[in-house]
Structures are given as structure tokens and as C-alpha cells.
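Tutorial handout. Part one gives the primary structure; part two gives the three-dimensional structure as C-alpha cells.
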Amino acid sequence: MRRKLKQQPDTDKINALASVINTDRVNATLLLQRGISDFNLAKEFFRPDLNLLHDPFLMKDMDKAVTRIITAINNKEKILVYGDYDVDGTTSVALFYSYLKSIGADAWYYIPDRYTEGYGISFKGIDYAKENKYALVVSLDCGIKANDKIDYANKLGVDFIICDHHLPGEHLPKAFAVLDAKRKDCGYPFKELSGCGVGFKLAQALQSKLNKPFEELIPLLDLVAVSIAADIVPVNGENRILCYYGLQELNKMKRAGIRALYQLNNLKKELTITDIVFVIAPRINAAGRIDHAMRAAELLLTDNEEEAARFAGGINQTNTNRKEIDQGMTAQAFDMIGINPQLIAKKTTVVYNEEWHKGVVGIVASRLIEKYYRPTIVLTKADGMLVGSARSVKNFDIHTAIESCSDLLEQFGGHRHAAGLTLKPENLELFVHRFEEEVSKTISEEDLIPEIDVDVTIYLNEISPKFFSVLKQFAPHGPENMTPVFVTDSVLDTGWARVVGTNHLKLELYQQENPTVKFHAIAFDKGDFLSFFQKKVPLSICYTVAENHYNGNTTLQLVVRDIQMN
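Part two.
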């Protein structure tokens, strides 16, 4: 593991900011690293304000989309809300469908089947809209590259409004309106909304046009927060505001489906981004991976306690099944790579098994990244085609590498860290060769070494309740505002060190220079370092600071991520 210390701001700037906002040098450093350099910017950061959300009409085609939806409502046309089958897609559907119903629209929702229809807008979905007399379809979290599908819909007389946040292709689909801040001709100031975030902006625009109060939209922000956390979009700018208030709504537990998942999984505290990522999102995702994502939408939309409990129980079981499938596939993939020296020597990993579960290939790709740390694609077979998911290492744009092989693909899409692709079986061997070739051209040896970004080098005596009370306000965390990571040198254990669980270390640490300041620490999967601590070898630790709740007491604890010799 390589540590990379972030650029440290000028000392005079640190001291000036610390003075003006009355904080310590560490928190001032963290703020400057995030581009926050004065009192007003710090106030905006620590006190997110819904009044600072951008005008939704700054988004290209927003006026057209709003006019078309209002026309449909006034003319009593049926509207179909169409979303992808992942967390971002299902939260988008739940948000926009419930909003349309609240303003009197004749609406229903549709989520494609991962196995029979594949990702995004499908011909089957368009046929469903036509056969059921839906004059307008609003697609969310998908559609930006569905040019042929939109052409087909146009021939059938079905209008589409596309709300997406993925990178567009060279030519936009010929939909009635295309809302995507990433389109080249869109001047919207914030480019990193989730798909559900784009849906919220459309609801915000409609609410404004209908002269309805913005405050009525705030309860929908719980779904936006779930989408932001699950889709790993940057948690800065407008997303920080949406996520901050979304977490507040989430913790009011007004949504029966979220409340049921919370209770079923014995969560006892206020929900955080971490809880969404590791508890809520995987269960919502599991519906689309193993069963059908309509189950997830039903969970998010119901206001009936008994229904919510039943839906949550079903989704929980589906997630358990998903884990078993995922573990089996991951073991097979590890075996496949372990017996093949040529695969180990490559700068990429591409593995294929026609019997693997299509809904879990993305998870397996992430597991392979954890072990081998190189751009990875996991493929399986479905309907005579090879379909798969790609995941990348930290500093490499896998979408661009896949795009350079697009002549061998039937379909692909995604972003720099993750992508999906479809190709014919006969193109597999050539694709594997070309993908390795393209990645090798641009990836460096350093890119293939796992890296921890360290924010600041600190002394243990700088950690105090007052320091942590400010540090907590940096949440919600995510890309562009990750949980601060610190490094401290010359650390020793008081003699309390022991291995617990499956090779985890429990410690009580102090620095050589100041033995009176001590902190309990947990170091996951670091049991091999026990002898170093027992022998009083000074070590350098890389860690985050967290609260530990035990027996009604709350104390500060260091969560150690890396241990190295000084």
C-alpha cells in the first residue's frame, strides 16, 4: 500500500483561516484542501442551504420538459416513469412517480428486467408504453445513448423526456427533451448530479412553474441522498446540499420501506452515508440483480407498514442469496486467475464464464480489484451475447479504454470508474487483446499500486472532543469530500494490543513524544502486526477518527487503515 500525502496549504493561509473561523490548524488545512478559503465559503460548507440550489431552468431543455409534462397533465395523457434497475434508477422512479401523482398526473412506472431487456431503455419497454396508451415516457438514470430506441419510439408516436447523468455519445437521442448536465451545450453549473438528482431538478422546475412551494419537495430528498451515496457521485457543490438535507429526511424515518429495512437490519443509530452504502443500497440493488427491481420500487413507494415489512423481508432474503452467488463466483474467478501466470502478468483482468450470474458480475469485478488492483472486466453469457461489468483502479479512466475498443462492442456505457458492455462471443479474444493493449498504453506502474490519500500529518494530542466536533461537520462524505485520513508517526501500544475476531487488532496507542495521550484503536485485518506492537517497535499509522459507542458510553477511536515502519 502506498501513501500519498495531499498537497499541504501554505502555513500563513492555514493560520489565517483558523483564526477567522476559530478552529485548529488541522481542520483549517482540511478546509483549504477542499477549496474553502474564507469565512463565507466555510459557512456554506458547514451550513448547507437549500436556497443555494441552482435554478433548474439553467439546464438545457428543462423548459421544454416542463411544458410537455404540464400539457400531458392538462390533456389527461398517461405518463410512464421509466428507470434503470439499480439504486439510482429505482430511487429516481420512486421520487418522480410519487411527485407526478402528487400534482394530479395519470402516471405509472416501469423498470426493465435486467435479463430479458438489459440496461436502459428497451424496445420491450417502448412497446409496453405504446400498447398501454402512454403518450409520454420520462426516463430516469438512462437513455442518453439510446438513439435507436428513441427513433423507434418516435415512429410509434411515443414522446420521451430523457433525464440522465451519464456521458452522452457523439449524437444525442432525438427525444422531445434531453436533460443531462454533461451534454456539451448545457450550461447548468453543476455537472455531477445523480440520476435521481436530475429527476429532483425536474420536479423542482415543475413545482416552480406550477407556483407550488419548494418546501413540499423536501421529503423527497431522502431518495436523493440514497442515490448519491449508492452511485458514488461527488459529494460537493449541489450534491452536498441535497445529501445533507436528504440524510435529515432519511433519519425522520417517514418512508415505511426505509424504516422496515432499518428495523430488519437492527440499525440502532442515526443513518449515515456508510449505512446507506453498506446496508440500505446493497439490499435495494439486490432486487434488480437477482429478482426484479420493481420489488425495490414497491418498497420505496409503499406507505403501508405490513407491505413494507413484507417487501423488506423479501429484499433482505434476496440480498442473502446474492451474497452466496457472489462468493461462489468470486472464488471461481480467483481460481481462474491463480492458475494462469499470463493473466497475473497482465495490466488488466478480463475473466469470462458463461454460467456466471449476470446480476453479480459488477460485484465480482470489484472483489478482483481489491485483490489484484488492475482495470477489470467480468463477463458472462446472456441471450447469445457476452455481457459484463468493468471496474477501474483509482487513477485510470476505464470508460475511455473501453471506448477505444468500441468497434468490437455491440453496446457500452458508464463513466471513468465503472462501465457495462456487450459484445459478440466471436469478438472476445480480440477484445481481450485490444483492451490490454489500450490500457497498457496509458496506465503507469504507480497506477497499479493501491494508494491511500492522506490529508494531514498530525500528533495524537491534537485530537480532542472540540477537534472532533468540527471534524464531524465535514460529513456527509463521498468523492471529493472523503472522510479525512491522518498519519501519525512514532506510535507505540501501551501493552493492551491483542488480536480479536478474524485477524483484527485492538490497541491502545500513544506517541513516544507524549505518552500521556492515549487512544483506543481498531485495525482491521492487521493482526500480523501484533508482534511489532508487543516488541515496542515505533510505527507509523494511517487512520480515520470515529466515535465508538459501547455500553452507553461514547469515546473517540482511531480506525487504522495502514501500518508501516517509521
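Part three, for discussion. The mean pLDDT is 95. The first strand starts at residue 2 and ends at 5.
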